[in-house]
Each structure stands twice: as C-alpha cells, then as structure tokens.
Design a protein that fits this description.
This protein is mainly beta and about 240 residues long. It has two domains: about 120 residues, Lipocalin (Beta Barrel), CATH 2.40.128; about 90 residues, no CATH class. It has one helix and 16 strands. The strands form two sheets. Strands 1-2-3-4-5-6-7-8 form an eight-stranded antiparallel barrel. An eight-stranded antiparallel beta barrel has the order 9-10-11-12-13-14-15-16.
C-alpha cells in the first residue's frame, strides 16, 4: 500500500473487471466438521454437512468463499435467524486444488475458529441435497443497506466498487489493489489484495501473497475503517468519500 500511480489509475478504471467465476469448488470434502458437500452455480455456493443438519450459503471471490454456516443447534443462539434458524455464524474458506483452510465464528462475531478440509476426488458432489428455499437469504439481491456501487475517493486512492446484494468487489490503483468482501448492515468486511506491500503473507489470496483484512463502516457519502496485514490486527486507518 503506497502512493497512487495516475497512469495505473486510468488503466484500472477503464478495465475494472467484476469478480472472477473461474474457481469451481463443487464436490465433496472430508472436513473437520464432517463430510461437506458443495454445489456451485456461478459465484453462488450452497453446501450441506451432517452436524445438526448443517448448511453453508455464500459467494466466491476468486478462490475465497465468504458466507454463513447454519444449523439446527449449536452452543450459542443468535438473536436473529438466517434461513429460519437461530444457530449460525460467519465463515471464510480459502480453496486450493486439494481442499480448503478456513475459519468460522458464532452469529456476527469475527470468524477465528479453524475449519479445514480435503477434496474427495471422484465424489463429484453425488448425493447432494439442496437446502430448503431460503426465507431470508443473506445473499439475496435487495434494496436494504447502503449502495456502494460507484467511485469513491479514499486515503488509499480512488476505489471503484461493484455490488450485487451483499457481495462487494472493488479496485484501486495502489499495486493493482482489489477489495473483496461482504456487507453486513453498514459494515464491509473482507480483504484487500495487492501485488506488493510492506509484508508478505505465508499463504496467498486470489493468487497473491500481499493482502490483509479490512473493515469499513459506511455512513451516507463517507466511510471510515481500518486495515491490517495478513491475518494481523486492524491498525491502519482507511477513510474516504463518494465522488
């Protein structure tokens, strides 16, 4: 994360892509929460696993899955339901060719508990039963919450956001930067990813080793928040306003 290159900014604004749909995670996985079966359609992913009639629902950002687990029962009951059930939490998986590594939490807490799995080749997702129709699909495209679509000035350069429901992707000029994340009410939680930064991470995100967590709170035409490096704490400020 460093000063803006104006020529790079112009090129990126002209060529800004939407989120890639190339990474397909459909199939079965042996995981720390039981056998997990995933089915993908575009960037939308749903899954099932045996623990308390568990289901997953979420979206792919390159090789990163952001979404929710939902069960009939768990050690904590949330105050609001997801898909009609009160036992749920946020989950993030990073996939590679052999499986995934990830974290999960309860309700809207930051995911910190580990959840990993290995792909079962030859399974092909056989026997998959889709979860029942969502009553309040957390990733449905709707008019609730802020609309981030458009161009924003920021302390890290001009950001161009694209949004579908809770799914948000952004591009900014610093080292071919991108933001991928999900919007929960007025808070965007996710990752920034760049070609280069002050710290190289041990594992890649979307094929690059320079990334970190970011959390931005939007209020009208402005936002403020913080970012960190890799999975470290969020310590550096990041603010901006709509152009």
């Amino acid at each position: 994360m460093k000063p803006i290159n104006k020529l790079t900014l112009i090129c990126l604004l002209l060529l800004t892509p939407v989120v890639s749909h190339a990474f397909d995670v459909s199939g079965t996985y042996s995981s720390s929460e039981g056998v997990l079966t995933l089915q993908q359609n575009g960037d939308r992913v749903v899954g099932s696993y045996p623990n308390d009639n568990g289901e997953l629902t979420g979206l792919m950002f390159g090789n990163i899955f952001e979404g929710f687990w939902i069960e009939d029962g768990s050690e904590r009951r949330c105050t609001t339901p997801k898909n009609g059930r009160y036992h749920w939490g946020r989950v993030t998986f990073t996939f590679n060719g052999n499986g995934f590594n990830g974290v999960w939490g309860h309700c809207d807490d930051k995911p910190i508990r580990s959840w990993g799995g290995t792909r079962n080749y030859g399974g092909g997702g056989q026997g998959f039963a889709s979860p029942p129709p969502a009553v309040n699909d957390p990733f449905a495209i709707n008019s609730y919450g802020p609309n981030l679509e458009g161009t924003w000035s920021s302390s890290e350069g001009v950001i161009t956001f694209r949004q579908q429901g809770n799914r948000v992707a952004g591009r900014y000029p610093n080292d071919n930067g991108e933001i991928v994340g999900t919007l929960h009410n007025d808070i965007l939680s996710g990752y920034w990813i760049e070609d280069m930064s002050a710290e190289r991470c041990a594992t890649p995100k979307n094929g690059r080793y320079y990334w970190g967590r970011v959390e931005l709170r939007f209020s009208g035409t402005t936002f403020s928040g913080k970012y960190g490096h890799c999975d470290g704490s969020l310590k550096s400020p990041w603010g901006g306003e709509r152009r």
